[in-house]
Amino acid sequence: MIVAIAEESRGAEHARQWIEAAKAEYWCLIDTDHRVADLYGMVNVPQSVWIDETGRMVRPPETTGSTDHFRRMDLKTRTMAPEDQAARNAARVAYLDADKAWATTGAHALPADAARRRLPANTPNIAQAHAHFRLGVWLRAQGVNGLPVGEGDAIWIGSQILVVTKKDGRWALEHHWAPVGSGLMPAAETRHLVRHLLGDEAGREAVERIDRRIASLPGMDGLAIVAGARAEMLVAA
Questions:
Q1: Helix intervals (H) in 106-186
Q2: What are phi and psi of 117, to 5 degrees?
Q3: In terms of Cα–Cα distance, which of 126, 123, 98 is closest to 110?
Q4: CA-to-CA distance for 15 and 10, rounded, in angstroms?
Q5: Which site among 23, 118, 145, 174 is 20 to 30 Å from 39 CA-CA?
Q6: Peptide bond just before 148 cis, omega within 30 deg
Q7: What is the pLDDT along the chain (237 residues), one digit of tens a residue?
Q8: Distance, CA of 224 to CA of 99 (rounded, Å)
Q9: CB atoms within 10 A of CB 196
Q10: How far apart are the two ends of the chain, measured CA to CA in Å?
């Protein structure tokens, strides 16, 4: 039995188009609070967990037939070289074949001790990232100074919003703020992510919108920390 879970804090309507496009013949659930990711230690997508009929996890969270070939994607055309696409497709097929083999023969299942050893550690950085996410979701729902906060805005603002009401809030933001996730991922991956999501004109406009909202907070006028971080990462990339 397959159960697909969309980690989508904005709700079912934002995931609907992908589920309908896939023409899924299995259960598709929406996890608006990312509880599944928290419980199983998932820090990226797509990831899978194999659970047998007794309820035992026989394979902890692992990449679901995905590869890193997307890092060489042409960001203007959103396409990959034929050999990279072929490698990605082959990885997906191999993973699905392994999954089918487990369901029919029990192949690839790990003993309990081995499965336990592979469980991801809940490090302080990961715990902090979870807290940032929760705060970001709350901010998106509540707004900042009465302004609605978008999905990306909540993620960027969430990491340091707690300090902006303190006496030294502006100094802390200027000297210690960093995009959420930069403490978890290698610098090269953070730069790639920023370039991929925010490297074009639409990304620049989104960043400026976020900075305007931060600048609307007391004592934060003129602050442009997100634009500065974006510029640094684009140059480094």
A1: 112-117, 124-142, 151-158, 169-176
A2: -65, -25
A3: 98
A4: 9
A5: 23
A6: no
A7: 899 999 888 888 888 998 999 898 999 999 988 889 888 888 777 899 999 999 999 999 998 888 888 878 887 787 889 999 999 999 999 999 999 999 999 999 999 999 999 998 877 777 777 776 776 677 667 655 444 555 445 444 444 444 334 345 666 677 667 776 666 667 777 787 788 778 888 888 888 888 887 777 767 788 888 888 888 888 765
A8: 48
A9: 16
A10: 42
Enumerate the domain spans of the chain: 34-66+93-117, 124-236
**Residues 6+ positions from 102 with CB-CB distance below 8 Å:** 50, 58, 59, 108, 109
The total of other beta-carbon atoms located within 10 Å of residue 227's CB is 15
Q: Model-level pTM?
A: 0.63
